[in-house]
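P.,

For your records, the input lines for the assembly:
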Amino acid sequence: MSTTRVPATPGEFAHYVAHPRFGRRPRLTGLDVFNTPDARVYCHWHSPIGVRVPNTAVVADVSRQRPATVAVTHYFDARRTCRKCSRPFLFFAEEQKYWYEALAFPLEADCLECPPCRKSEQKLRAARERYDALLLQTARTQTDTLELVTCALGLVESSVFAVKLLPKLRGLLKPLLVDAQGSSYAPARSALDRLKRIAALRAERRTPPRQRRGRRPK
Ligand SMILES: [Zn+2]
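Structure tokens returned:
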């Protein structure tokens, strides 16, 4: 199906979060449909009138959807507000087709986060999985230890892990900092610097701002 983009007029979509593939503006298909009483046309309940963008309908292949009481026959580009960063974005009709047909997600699944927030969430999940795997490893090379510490630092920065993990990470870096000629020295050094920066930042946040007093002249 050919799609055209809504012209770049100053409109409501100008400040929407861009999708890496579809951009930030609706993709007009020229198709606009409405629910019929016999459900021969049934638009997704998460995209009611006002939420969906007119003329962006894409026909669903209901045979590929997970069985549901009522099959969704058309997807529309739908307006969303990210639950994480509160910015507006579009859940594109073609994305929905991919979710509910190719990936066979249940029709109840909804997209609640904008693409960048989803991406950082995925990265954190991957870092967490990698960290857990490395932690279970009985014999870790220096490269493994560095990766473990790097994953953990990212997770502390994102508040997935608590700052109290930092001393342990510092301990893991210690043996890598013994030999200044070693190949792990430089990356371990920069990991330690990053660790110190995180610790300083967190300490700063914990300390209430001091009342400033003017110095008395002698
Ligand atoms: Zn977001």
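Two observations worth noting. Residues 5-9 have pLDDT under 50 and may be disordered. The radius of gyration is 25 Å.

Regards
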